[in-house]
């Protein structure tokens, strides 16, 4: 009898935990436009390079790995003459790499809907590849290549890029570019569990741990 009840509790606890993890109904979807204007200025942004110090940026619970925030109000970044930011004074700086990625800081889905891009060293135009990450090891869920057209005389060098919804992923999106790139006004959607989902997950996990402890004690 005791064994049967104990087994039922263990099964129920596991099911509660799994239900919380895979539930999509109890999620809160948030949308915002990231401009990096509120990103704390560090001493490196005040030097001749005018970019933030470090190998990642965290803003609004989003992690930008291998990116920097650039202060474009000086007219030069990393020795490259630049136009003003699309809005405000700051923008995201993307180096030439295939490992630059944007991820949610913690559990949650992520979708970058659009961004304004600028390639100051490629007045003839440039390309950027966006890759949806299917796992923390970088497995692809899809990819697309977007073109930044040549800068037209007298026109703004900033171009709006819209990204395919198929690139939405819990693990974020990675970029590669054939030239240094700046991005501004990123429109981002995130889906994070509601508080009751976290409570359900915590309850199930706690029950599972207690049940396992009792199994070992007997």
Please tell me about this protein's structure:
The structure is a single chain. By secondary structure, this protein is α+β, with helices and mostly antiparallel strands. The protein folds into 2 domains: 50 residues; 167 residues, Sandwich (Jelly Rolls), CATH 2.60.120.1350. It contains 2 helices and 14 strands; from the N terminus they run H-E-E-E-E-E-E-E-E-E-E-E-E-E-E-H. Strand 5 and strand 6 form a beta hairpin. The strands form 3 sheets. Strands 1, 4, 7, 9, 12 and 14 form a 6-stranded antiparallel β-sheet that branches. It starts with a helix and ends with a helix. Helix 1 packs antiparallel against helix 2. The chain is globular, with a radius of gyration of 22 Å.
Keywords:
six-stranded antiparallel sheet; about 220 residues; alpha+beta; Jelly Rolls; disordered C terminus; globular; 2 domains; about 40% strand; about 20% helix; 2 helices
Radius of gyration over alpha carbons? 22 Å
Write down the domain tally: 2
pLDDT < 50 runs, ≥5 residues: 1-25, 196-216
Given the C-alpha coordinates, what overall shape results? globular
β content, as a range? Answer: 35-45%
So, the CATH homologous superfamily of the largest domain? Answer: Protein of unknown function DUF4465
The portion of residues assigned to helices is: 10-25%
CATH fold group of the largest domain: Jelly Rolls
SS-derived structural category: alpha+beta
Q: Please give the count of helices.
A: 2
Report the mean per-residue pLDDT as an integer: 76
- What composes the largest sheet? 6 strands, antiparallel
Main CATH class of the largest domain: Mainly Beta
In angstroms, what separates the terminal alpha carbons? 14 Å
Number of strands: 14
CATH architecture of the largest domain: Sandwich
What is the succession of H and E elements?
HEEEEEEEEEEEEEEH
Keywords: Signal
Signal peptide: 1-19
InterPro entries: Ice-binding_C
Domain Ice-binding protein C-terminal: 191-214
């Amino acid at each position: 009898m005791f064994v049967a009840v104990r087994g039922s509790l263990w099964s129920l606890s596991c099911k509660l935990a799994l239900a919380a993890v895979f539930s999509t109904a109890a999620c809160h979807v948030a949308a915002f436009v990231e401009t990096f204007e509120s990103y704390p200025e560090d001493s490196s942004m005040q030097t001749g390079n005018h970019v933030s110090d470090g190998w990642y940026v965290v803003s609004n619970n989003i992690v930008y790995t291998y990116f920097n925030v650039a202060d474009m109000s000086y007219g030069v970044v990393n020795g490259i003459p630049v136009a003003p930011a699309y809005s405000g004074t700051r923008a995201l700086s993307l180096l030439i790499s295939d490992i630059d990625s944007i991820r949610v800081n913690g559990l949650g889905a992520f979708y970058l809907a659009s961004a304004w891009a600028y390639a100051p060293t490629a007045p003839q135009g440039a390309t950027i590849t966006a890759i949806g990450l299917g796992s923390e090891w970088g497995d692809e869920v899809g990819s697309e290549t977007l073109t930044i057209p040549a800068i037209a005389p007298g026109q703004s060098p900033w171009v709006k890029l819209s990204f395919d919804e198929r690139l939405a992923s819990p693990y974020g999106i990675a970029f590669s570019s054939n030239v240094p790139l700046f991005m501004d006004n990123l429109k981002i959607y995130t889906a994070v569990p509601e508080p009751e989902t976290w409570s359900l997950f915590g309850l199930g996990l706690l029950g599972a741990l207690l049940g396992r402890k009792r199994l070992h004690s007997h």
